[in-house]
Amino acid sequence: MDRPDFTGREFHGAAEPQPKNLTTKTRRREEILCDSSRLRVFVVNRISLWGRKSERSSKSAMASVLIVEDEPKMLRLLELNLGEEGWTTFSAGDAETGLKILGREAIDLVLSDFKLPGMNGLEFLDAIHRVNAEVPVVLMTAYGSVETAVEAMKKGASNYVLKPFSLEEIKLVVRKERDAHRLRVENRTLREELGRRYEYPNLVARSAKMQEVLAAVERVAPTNSTVLIGGESGVGKELIARAIHQRSRRASGPFVKINCTAIPENLLESELFGYERGAFTGATATKPGKFELADKGSLFLDEIGDVPQITQAKLLRVLQEREFERLGGTRTIKVDVRLVAATNRDLRAALEQGTFREDLYYRLNVVPIDVPPLREHAEDIPGLVEHFLAKYRGESGKQIRGVTPQAIQLLANFHWPGNVRELENIIERAAAFAKGEWIEAGDIHLDTGPAKGSNAPMGFLPPGMTLDQWEDEMIREALRRSGGNKSQAARLLGLSRNALRYRLSKIGIADDPEMP
Predict the structure, then answer these.
(1) Which tops the pLDDT comparison, 194 or 96?
(2) Of 19, 116, 334, 335, which residue has the fewest beta carbons closer than 10 angstroms?
(3) pTM for this prediction
(4) Is the Cβ–Cβ distance between 286 and 275 less than 8 Å?
């Protein structure tokens, strides 16, 4: 009697090929499958078992597989076994039906017989990739088709399985291809993320360093984690805090900010937590604090490092419990607030000095984001200049077209102790003093003197500036003050005319012998 083997192909006679390296349990299973009557019992039992597990499997299904096989028994067997593995299965008895399913369903893997009615495996593989170029394809083929299967691998098939095979073998192959496909997708996503340029209104960040900052913003914004933004004064910490809020689920809620250094120490607590009527002299009415105003939104605490220690303890409680009492009140108020803090101080040094609470620091420093100073991403200066020029062009009442390359180079070489805020002030000033349609190097007035109130000794280099850069800047400043008169500039610098000529040649400024 003709009996179907495990793969669904028919053999004549008593002899029957056996797969290699099969366990006793697997061989017995195949012997059962070879008996058509017992096969029906096996399938019924499997259907019953599958029915009991269907709810659990549907919850844990992590991927979908399209099975294309023209042998009905084999098709059903693969459906049942892969379904038990957690796959969502789609089945087709021919290539044309399989392509239709592939076009309308989200398929993660195709498992197909190589020989199908009306279309061979290579043709089917090409058709699959025209519909979905990303989906991995595993081919099932007989011993005599190994060469063709290798050819299919060259054309894009992910893997192939030789018939006859065991159930465990096919499960292992599709599981491996699923995991490999996921890794490929994750790697591609990561590469896209690394290559992605993040764009935010009012934020110019084309440099690699600032793109890293914005990538961190993208990752942390959807969460409710507390963020601590560090960086020098003027780097744009508030803009980063606003970006976090705008990208968060709280974007429709309020964004409330408070500068902790701008409020007297004895009033900071009442500003943060509010007060009840009569809480102190002059408290003629109840006033909600910043935490209440920021409910369902974000609260930005700028210069958190300057908060007095008595207020730090109350801040810690709000961060832990999300509740507080108004000044002079007894009613506990609960709030849903996402806290973003910023500082230009080294809080770790403040911990060692005992001026900042260690427990509060670790509550705040859940997600740290450090914004680099402008001198470390000078490639953003041209974009920032254009951004600020667009802002102040109209206010100046002048038709300023742009900034000359020489002026841009002058700005790029500056060390920017005041960072982006200082650059904005410089561009506003240049727009006000510009004489023509273009802002030239002579219209740029940089603050090259020592900082007011600085205790640093005279001659000490500004932070982030080398001796050569400082010397070049002094020469340019002398030329500006002398109106381009090189003899006068040499006197300002205490140099001879020849010495100045030598230094001008080093920084690429031509020395016209006809000019004084």
Answers:
(1) 96
(2) 334
(3) 0.54
(4) yes
